[in-house]
Amino acid sequence: MLAWLLTAALLTGHGVMDLERPFVGKIMEGTPAYSAGIQPGDIIKSINGKELSKWSDIRETIQNKNVTSDRFHITLEREEQTLDFDIDIPVDPAHGGRLLGVQPGRITYPVHTALQKSLGYSWNMGVEILRGPWMVLTRKVQSDVVGPVGIAVMAGDALKQGIWSFIAFLGVINLHLGLLNLLPFPALDEEG
């Protein structure tokens, strides 16, 4: 219950990355997007003629191994106007790929919507938490178990990143503890 309320508070107060559409939230200085004049609030409609519908389409199109030219034709929408840009996006040797230099925007929700959406977020987190032990057993991920001291350090790190990171951390920890308490441990559950 607490995890659900904390997630709702996060969705209302801080929001989440808007990955459902190619909406530019932030521009990184010194990048091709910055040099070209792309601005926060722009919606990238197409790259090299390929229509985009979600945020991941931007990266997939720019990182496409079949693209041999560093020049990209980008069409975007800004305040109901369509703008076209021809931008050079060379392969960055430090990253091993092309970097346009845009970050997604954030979307916040009113309280009633956040309460509904937080159920979905909490459900998805719960599924991932329950998948965790299976992933460790099948060696798809490495086990990285921490005790109370490790959790306290992680909480401190989250708080240093800001109150919203700390609230998100508390929500995840609360959900972990709630789900683990539902699991039967006969040696611990027997009475006297």
* Cα Rg: 22 Å
Report on the biggest sheet. 4 strands, antiparallel
**Helical element count?**
7
End-to-end C-alpha gap = 30 Å
Strand share of the residues? 15-25%
Mean pLDDT: 84
Unreliable segments (pLDDT under 50, ≥5 consecutive)? Answer: none
| Widest sheet: strand ordering | 4-3-5-6
Shape field: elongated
Number of separate strands: 10
Q: Helices and strands: which structural class?
A: alpha+beta
GO molecular function: metalloendopeptidase activity
Organism: bioreactor metagenome
Protein name: Putative zinc metalloprotease
Keywords: Hydrolase, Membrane, Metalloprotease, Protease, Transmembrane, Transmembrane helix, Zinc
Topology:
Layout (H helix, E strand, L loop, with lengths): L1 H12 L2 E2 L6 E4 L4 H5 L6 E5 L2 E2 L4 H7 L8 E8 L2 E8 L2 E2 L4 E2 L3 E3 L1 E2 L3 H27 L10 H14 L1 H20 L3 H4 L3
Antiparallel strand pairs: 1-10, 2-9, 3-4, 3-5, 5-6, 7-8
Helix pairs in contact: 1-4, 1-6, 4-6, 5-6
Subcellular location: Membrane
GO cellular component, one term: membrane
Main location: membrane
What does this structure look like?
- With 192 residues, this protein is an alpha+beta fold.
- The protein folds into 2 domains: 2-15 and 109-189, no CATH class; 19-104, Roll (Pdz3 Domain).
- 46% of the residues lie in helices and 20% in strands.
- It is built from 7 helices and 10 strands.
- The protein has helices spanning 2-13, 32-36, 56-62, 111-137, 148-161, 163-182, 186-189, and strands at 16-17, 24-27, 43-47, 50-51, 71-78, 81-88, 91-92, 97-98, 102-104, 106-107.
- Strands 4-3-5-6 form a 4-stranded antiparallel sheet.
- Strand 7 and strand 8 (97-98) form a beta hairpin.
- Helix 4 (111-137) crosses helix 6.
- It is elongated and about 70 Å long.
- Keywords: Hydrolase, Membrane, Metalloprotease, Protease, Transmembrane, Transmembrane helix, Zinc.
- It is a multi-pass membrane protein.
